[in-house]
Amino acid sequence: MANSKVSHATDQGLKTTLISILANALLAIVKGIAGIFGNSYALIADAIESTSDIFSSLIVWAGLKVASKGPDSDHPYGHGKAEPLATIVVALLLIGAAILIAIQSVKNILTPHKVPAPFTLVVLGGVIVLKEFLFRRINQTGKQINSTAVKADAWHHRSDAITSFTAFLGITIALIGGEGYENADDWAALIASVIIVFNAYHIFIPAMGEIMDVAPPEEILDGIRQVAMQVEGVRGLDKALVRKMGFEYFVDLHVLVDGHLSVKEGHRIAHQVKDAILLENRQIYDVLIHIEPF
To answer: The Cation efflux protein transmembrane domain covers which part of the protein (predicted)?
Structure first.
């Protein structure tokens, strides 16, 4: 059952990642051409980010493929950590792209140039709508399959929508202001680079938490405790440790039972607790029960 769940989650993640790759490839071409002929570095910066997003999505795709592999002799807990590792790489690439955009923006601010062409606003408007749509769809998938990598891929689309929006504002100011406002879209690209770094931080922290086995959301722990306490023979709970591995969770639970019970009876209760938890929460891959006398 667990393997089929992982396979389903992987298929969903890979599907959305493929959509990201195709969309970013198309948009990188459109924005690059529009930026060059429309005299807008903000659009060119957008094209650079879309190009970097293609490589980021490929890293997410590879991370999902590796994370979907089951346990083996060298990886008894599976390969789930590949997913947050891919997310961290994606966040670092996003920061790198932001730095490049910022450097070029400063250069353009210091260099006189023409006002961007009006048609670039039409291109940016379409990009904003498409990117926000992709963010919402892919982020929803990431939440459904509990994948930090897929959610990171979604945030790339949100950051692209934000940079396109700032570029839209910058070009609008340049067109309305006319002479003296030629570099407004370059300032917009510079502001966008700061926003991109913020989004990268937003992606990086949860992924690093998974690598460091940070505690899961409190509702998951509460659900495990409630289910375990409903099993007949359970007198109480001591430790409840949970860590995320890829799409799923591993649980270590210390269960208190009557100290006069036989080993066989204690073993039976342990299995009932494990089965009840696995049945209640399909995100949980395995439960290790430690029986303690009460």
So the answer is: 18-212
Indicate whether 9 and 38 sit together in one domain: yes
Residues 202 and 234 in one domain: no
Q: Which residues contact 45 (CB under 8 A, 6 or more apart)?
A: 35, 101, 104, 105, 163, 167, 189, 192, 193
Total domains in the fold of the chain: 2
190 and 47 share one domain? yes
DSSP string, 148-205: HHHHHHHHHHHHHHHHHHHHHHHHHHHHHH-TT-TTHHHHHHHHHHHHHHHHHHHHHH
Segments forming the whole domain that contains residue 159: 2-211
Q: pTM for the complete prediction?
A: 0.74
Q: Is 270 within 8 Å of 262 (Cβ atoms)?
A: no
Q: Pick from 166, 193, 211: which residue ends a domain?
A: 211
Alpha-carbon distance of 269 to 289, in angstroms, equals 10
Q: Are strands 284-293 and 236-245 parallel, antiparallel or unpaired?
A: unpaired
Tracing tokens 């890829």 back to the chain, one arrives at 246
Domain identity same for 257 and 187 = no
